[in-house]
Structures
1.
Amino acid sequence: MTGATAARRNDYYRRLDPLSMAPLWEVLGDLVTPSPASRCRPACWRYEDVRTLLLESGDLISAREAERRVLVLENPGLRGESRVTTSLYAGLQLILPGEVAPAHRHTQTALRFVVEGEGAYTAVDGEKAVMHEGDFIITPSGTWHDHGNESDGPVVWLDGLDIPIVTLLDASFAERYPEEAQATTRPRGAAAARYGCGLLPVEASSGGPASPVFSFPYARTREALDRLRASAAVDACHGIRMKYANPLDGGYALPTIATFIQLLPRGFRGAAHRSTDATVFCVAEGEGRTEAGEETFTWGPRDTFVIPSWWPRRHEVEEEAVLFSFSDRVVQEALGLWREEREPFAGATA
Ligand code: 1HN
């Protein structure tokens, strides 16, 4: 291109600008890439590095004042945007003995994976679920929720929310409950008894888009994985991987965040694979390594790590390990976008 052509084009672009118009040909290559070109980077937060700082926040601000006392896990490629991946938010929340995180509701969907401590609770639409390490709890869009800690030690969990998705769609609504804690209207375990025992009410309505079972205790999950270890096929990439499911339709437990638990058997050497859903992993048990492109994360219990869209990854363990994970796969599947590829890869890798 000659200097004269460039000058003519720039002059032309300047005249488009006041009309809020711009030439597509200058940006097309960045908008429609041959494969995912994410700013999201692989990252790992080791719990031993994070824990002391997280507990220090307990001296700085109360759960009541903070509303939620959380350290946001910001993806290094997306600093300042409160995102762990392009489409999802994650944070580590601390609640101290006797504290209450006040009741509220919002259109954003949330999940919790309990990382440390016992005996805190989340109340969801009038029912309390007590937390134990490894428990998975959901607060679907629009449900009232508050947390409390009735134990004598700190309790920490990983929060995952679909905040960037709701922001993309400009569909955020939120409100505070008139009191600090919502009234308990159903006994503990009511939702699990009604929907989570392989039984369903005969007159059940089809339900909303999220699972009516909102707590998935680790003891049951672990027992299932133990039995599957002896009987299930071990996937070359994922080990024994299960999704948390909505008992009403067998779909994912949440409409915007897919959630998984996987057992990597002793001596597992995973094959490399890549998928279009950037995935956040939290280590429930065990130790291992995950390669993501050129990076290798060595992880242990309570660590959190993230693998971006389309980055090849491979898990390895010496002894058995259990990983919780979440991603936007459910959204991508609904839109016909989700892809996975296993080695050997067809095209260039990220
Ligand atoms: C929220 O409601 C919780 O309920 C945690 O524990 C983290 C981050 C952003 C917006 C709402 C919770 C949150 C959140």
2.
Amino acid sequence: MRRKYICGNWKMNKTSSEARKFAKDLNNSEFKNVDVLIAPSFVTLESLRKELKSEIEIAAQNISQYENGAYTGEVSAEMLKDIDVNSVIIGHSERREIFKESNEIVNEKVKRAISEGLKVILCLGESEEIREKGKEVEFVRDELLASLKDIKTLENITIAYEPIWAIGTGKTCNSIDAEEMCKEIRNTLIEEYTEEADSTRILYGGSVKPENAVEILSKENIDGVLVGGASLKSEDFIEIIKAGENL
Ligand code: PGA
């Protein structure tokens, strides 16, 4: 049985002072039987780690593929670990599309994070154009295999399927299509990594909100959600956590 994983990606939102209020709300709410993660901006990581109760995981939204050195503006795995941040989101479609991160770069980042002992949430997902052509399964499979090239074990890896056309648009992928793609992802992982893939968590992301969380989270191959917009309001995010807890 895979425990549900409710992850909030704040993107470039919330100052550290705004995050403090959110931390208070989250600390005051009780939940068990569910894992919870928040990914704030780099500058808020350290203070949020100190303010949030320890059972809530904190993740960075990105990481450098390089170990250290002359890479202006970049943040290394070692810097994250030093402030007690042990997880990172890699390959979000905004990184891929706006900041031109190719599968090769994403793969370098995954390898760097895993070799430094970080847990990774690897994001994948097709554009509307690819879905209209009916090529989404092939596309996501290629993205998955290229991003995981040379990765020998899935132990510290979670996959997030996030169709680009459903991110921040209010258009949720219907839960049947989302389940179908998450199942395809699991089958591909089983081909590559055998039964180890049975315990890998696969998340859905894209316009998840309190109103649709139960339906999405009840699907067999959807082990959690990666939430953008609805993770910014503590009441909404707590409602989504409760949806995961009660399944
Ligand atoms: P959204 O974003 O929930 O605002 O659609 C999801 C994501 O980008 O992770």
